[in-house]
Amino acid sequence: MNVVSKVRQELRKNVDSHTRHYSGSFFKEPVKSIGVKVPVVTKIAERLFGQIEHLSKETIFGFCEELLKSGYVEEAFVACRWSDFLKDRYEPEDFEVFEHWLNTYVSNWAECDTLCNHTLGTFVENYPKYVERLKQWTQSQNRWVKRGAAVTLILPARKGMFLDDVFEIADKLLLDGDDLVQKGYGWMLKEASKQHQEEVFNYVIRNRAEMPRTALRYAIEKMPQDLRKEAMKK
């Protein structure tokens, strides 16, 4: 039995009826869910990675793609965890692999955020020039690619990195009509505000007349109450 079959067997041995029943309630779009709790999926991913970590990165990426193709959120989560476990082995050409996965297989916000927050976020920290590719994503017709342009910078922004790029991506997504894209760049701004509160506050004030309220509320969520009140004024 290959490792992908083992993943599927382990997931199906750990189905939780409550999780299976309610998993769809977190999404607006239809999702394929086996019904396994996230902490359990994480443990399965970690345990089975130990059986394959000696293999080449390309072989493991092949397993990840096979899991992503299934369309099940739990299998996608395992794939994203495995690709993140390989972060010490990333090379520039891996960006094309991750971009392909995002364009081809990601079909909901959970898969988007899991892949982009960790795998792609770490990748752009290692290879900062690829932030320019994220800016190109803002013009995509794929909502998950557009959201990915922002949420890839969540963890770097939390560390205070890429502030100018954060604002440029927010500018490009500012008037996007998709609420999940709005929430994505609002979240990016919120994380950036943890190290750059004044700069993010000033950005919000400059753009509040046009910025959708969904994005604005996300962006200021962690700011002091007086700043939040000022930002919400029309």
Please summarize what this structure is.
This protein is mainly α and 234 residues long. It has 15 helices and no strands.
Description:
There is one protein chain. 68% of the residues lie in helices and 0% in strands. With 234 residues, the protein is mostly helical. The chain has two domains: 1-89, no CATH class; 109-234, Leucine-rich Repeat Variant (Alpha Horseshoe), CATH 1.25.10. The longest helix has 18 residues, at 109-126. The protein is globular, with a radius of gyration of 19 Å. The mean pLDDT is 94.
Write the layout of secondary structure elements.
Blueprint: H1 3-13, H2 17-22, H3 38-49, H4 57-69, H5 73-85, H6 94-104, H7 109-126, H8 131-137, H9 143-151, H10 154-158, H11 163-173, H12 179-193, H13 197-207, H14 213-220, H15 225-232
Name a few traits of the molecule.
2 domains, 68% helix, 234 residues, mainly alpha, Leucine-rich Repeat Variant
Number of domains: 2
Number of strands: 0
Stretches where pLDDT is under 50 for at least 5 consecutive residues are: none
State the order of secondary-structure elements, H for helix, E for strand: HHHHHHHHHHHHHHH
Query: From the alpha-carbon coordinates, what is the Rg to the nearest angstrom?
Result: 19 Å
- In whole angstroms, how far apart are the ends? 61 Å
Write down the overall mean pLDDT.
94
